[in-house]
């Protein structure tokens, strides 16, 4: 059994203040690379210009952190991070499918622990929407829930996009998913607003972006090599499915024709989620928790950390109750923690709490990563 430390931070203020608070609370050189890995001046200016146009406030947050740490802005890992490729599963259930008649968004996030922050942030940025979200390179978000009941999560879609030699080159310059997720959480109240905003953002990363809100609207927005397509569901529709789900392959045409193969494990997980959600009985939060922690291939929980496919976190979000449930490490003994974005919580910020968790590393089956046809 291996161990690591998880943290929860609560921050409040303008974006520069939030970055400064992070820099003072996080010890050592967290989020900082060496001089040799620092981004060049030209590339940094290019990245900051992109952030200023599509992710307003992000540059100020980066500057606050760099100033608190006493380092140059180009030494923040966030500005140059291009290799991340998490393997995840996600699902959203409208009130017609849930026992508490709420919209529930659940996800499992798989990757390698050496590249993980293991941090959760509750952020109240001045002039924007408060939210709770998982951390990627400190300033990015992998999923989250904001004060208006907008929930966002993501999975990688298809073969990974990166500047690394073994991966597919980006079709154009743009934003990685972790910048997209945080921008939507900070600036959008509804799925309609989030969909409109993401359509205007350059997203070279291949992504299955799940967006849902407390009114009972949900969208799965899929990108592949600069192309985008989406499917949507709503409680207002008298007929049609009342859930959406995604794993790590294309789910819509023409994407399935453009990339007609997927990892075997992605198809297995997709089919298991569909079988679980299509049953007539309504699901509770506890049902979703149990399903997320059920070992693969029957559930979503994977312990293949050395193979870059270990369950880092399992998350359930109640978009109406504004509750965020998280279990770290895919290990039930670590326990489920509940956080809230409700305004009636005590106004306590600039805090940082830590706890130790455990996770178990195993080897996957030989055909786990096998490429199989989608059709």
Quick gist of this model?
The chain has helices at residues 15-25, 41-54, 58-69, 77-80, 177-187, 191-199, 255-258, 264-278, 285-293; strands at residues 2-13, 87-93, 104-111, 119-125, 131-136, 140-146, 151-156, 207-212, 217-224, 227-234, 243-246, 261-263, 303-304, 309-318, 323-328, 336-340, 351-359, 371-373. The chain has 375 residues and is an alpha+beta fold. The strands form 3 sheets. It has a 9-stranded mixed β-sheet, covered by helices on one side. Strands 2, 3, 11, 13, 14, 15 and 16 form a 7-stranded antiparallel β-sheet that branches. The chain has a two-stranded antiparallel sheet with strand order 12-18.
Looking at this protein, list some descriptive labels.
375 residues; alpha+beta; nine-stranded mixed sheet; Peptidase C45 hydrolase domain-containing protein; Peptidase_C45_hydrolase; C45_proenzyme-like; Ntn_hydrolases_N
What does this protein look like?
It is a single chain. This protein is of the alpha+beta class. The chain has one domain (2-373): Penicillin V Acylase, Chain A, CATH 3.60.60. The protein is 24% helix and 31% strand. A nine-stranded mixed beta sheet has the order 10-9-8-7-6-5-4-1-17, covered by helices on one side. Helix 1 packs parallel to helix 3. The chain is globular and about 55 Å long. The chain starts with a strand and ends with a strand. The mean pLDDT is 93. Residues 100-330 form the Peptidase C45 hydrolase domain.
């Amino acid at each position: 059994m291996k161990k690591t430390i998880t943290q929860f931070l609560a921050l409040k203020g303008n974006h520069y203040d939030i970055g400064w608070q992070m820099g003072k609370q996080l010890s050592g050189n967290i989020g900082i690379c060496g001089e040799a890995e620092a981004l060049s001046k030209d590339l940094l200016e290019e990245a900051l210009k992109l952030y200023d146009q599509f992710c307003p406030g992000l540059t100020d947050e980066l500057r606050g952190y760099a100033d608190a740490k006493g380092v140059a802005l180009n030494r923040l890992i966030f500005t140059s991070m291009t290799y991340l490729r998490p393997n995840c599963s996600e699902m959203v259930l409208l009130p017609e499918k849930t026992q508490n008649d709420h919209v529930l968004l659940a996800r499992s996030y798989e990757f390698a622990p050496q590249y993980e922050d293991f941090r959760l942030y509750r952020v109240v940025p001045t002039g924007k929407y408060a939210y709770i979200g998982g951390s990627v390179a400190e300033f990015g978000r992998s999923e989250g829930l904001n004060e208006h009941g907008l929930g966002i999560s993501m999975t990688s879609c298809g073969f990974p996009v990166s500047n690394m030699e073994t991966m597919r080159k980006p079709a154009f310059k743009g934003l990685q998913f972790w910048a997209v997720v945080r921008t939507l959480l900070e600036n959008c109240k509804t799925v309609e607003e989030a969909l409109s905003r993401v359509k205007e953002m350059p997203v070279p990363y291949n992504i299955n972006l799940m967006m849902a809100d407390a009114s009972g609207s949900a969208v799965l927005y899929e990108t592949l090599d600069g192309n985008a397509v989406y499917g949507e569901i709503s409680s207002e529709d008298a007929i049609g499915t009342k859930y959406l789900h995604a794993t790590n392959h294309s789910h819509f045409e023409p994407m399935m024709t453009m990339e007609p193969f997927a990892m075997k494990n992605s198809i297995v997980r997709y089919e298991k989620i569909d079988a679980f959600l299509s049953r007539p009985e309504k699901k509770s939060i506890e049902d979703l928790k149990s399903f997320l922690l059920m070992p693969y291939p029957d559930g979503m929980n994977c312990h293949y950390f050395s193979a870059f496919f270990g369950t880092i976190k399992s998350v359930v979000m109640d978009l109406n109750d504004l509750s965020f449930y998280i279990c770290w490490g895919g290990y039930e003994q670590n326990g489920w923690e509940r956080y809230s974005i409700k305004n009636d919580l005590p106004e306590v910020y600039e805090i940082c709490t830590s706890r130790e968790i455990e996770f178990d590393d195993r080897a996957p089956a030989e055909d786990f990563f096998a490429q199989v046809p989608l059709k």
